[in-house]
From TrEMBL:
This is GOLD domain-containing protein. GO terms for cellular component: endoplasmic reticulum membrane. Residues 29-180 form the GOLD domain. It is found in: Endoplasmic reticulum membrane; Membrane. The chain crosses the membrane at residues 173-195. It is a single-pass type I membrane protein. The keyword Transmembrane helix applies.
Length: 206
């Protein structure tokens, strides 16, 4: 019974949904970062409270600075993109105001991001492919299983890369240690012969 419970809870733990709300002070910039795998669909929906004489610009970029989505004077909308590589993605909200003086209330920002299986609209898929409810659920479970397999494959790949790095580092440390010992032995031998010649020159030893 316990393994069954694990299988039932596993999909719940693997939901890729990020919903967040926060206040953005005037003339400030806040960014959210998240690592996402390759070839993953990312969708999002945002809702920004309106404020007179101020606006909020939204920009989504990857680690290389490529703009995936940009919206000036954003208030409410949706965005979607597919990742081309495993990368760190940044969602930035920047507040701008034309008011020079005076206290301006912070703007409330609601952001709901989904990626992977949760980002797919299975209702639309069902309409296009004319699928029955059970077939839609099977499709969703199939996509979820594929996502889990891909995650495990990625973790295995990362583990192999880390192991190779550790082995390479250990080998380099070993070679460096041997080289250092040889240098120390050579330096000690040279010191012995140098001191011996010095003492002989001073006629302190025979």
């Amino acid at each position: 019974m316990a393994p069954l419970r694990v299988l039932v809870l596993l999909p719940l733990l693997l939901h890729s949904v990020a919903s967040i709300s926060f206040f953005l002070p005037i003339r400030t910039r806040k960014c959210l970062k998240e690592e996402i795998h390759k070839d993953v669909l990312v969708t999002g929906e945002y809702d920004i409270s309106e404020q007179a004489n101020s606006k909020v610009n939204l920009k989504i970029t990857d680690s290389s600075g490529h703009i995936l989505y940009s919206k000036e004077d954003a208030t409410k909308g949706k965005f979607a993109f597919t990742t081309e590589d495993y990368d760190m993605f940044e969602v930035c909200f920047e507040s701008k105001s034309q008011m020079a003086l005076g206290r301006v209330p912070d703007q409330l920002i609601n952001l709901n991001m989904k990626h992977g299986v949760e980002a797919k609209n299975y209702e639309e898929i069902a309409k296009v492919e004319k699928l029955k409810p059970l077939e839609v659920e099977l499709r969703r479970l199939e996509d979820l299983s594929e996502s889990i397999v891909n995650d495990f494959a990625y973790m295995k790949k990362r583990e192999e890369e880390m192991r190779d790095t550790n082995e390479s580092t250990n080998t380099r440390v070993l070679y460096f240690s041997v080289f250092s010992m040889c240098c120390l032995i050579g330096l000690a031998t040279w010191q012995v012969f140098y001191l011996r010649r010095f003492f002989k020159a001073k006629k302190l030893i025979e």
